[in-house]
Write a structure and sequence with these properties.
Layout: E1 10-11, E2 14-15, H1 22-37
Antiparallel strand pairs: 1-2
Length: about 40
Amino acid sequence: ATRDVSSIAAVDDHDLPTAPGPVTTAVAAAFADLVARTPDP
């Protein structure tokens, strides 16, 4: 099980232009804040 938000840099053999992107970065920050406030989110 994964307990954090993880970004990806490629799909199959196709590199993504920006990784992590702005949405992943924002979601990771929001989830980290939730984890800090809630023992078992």
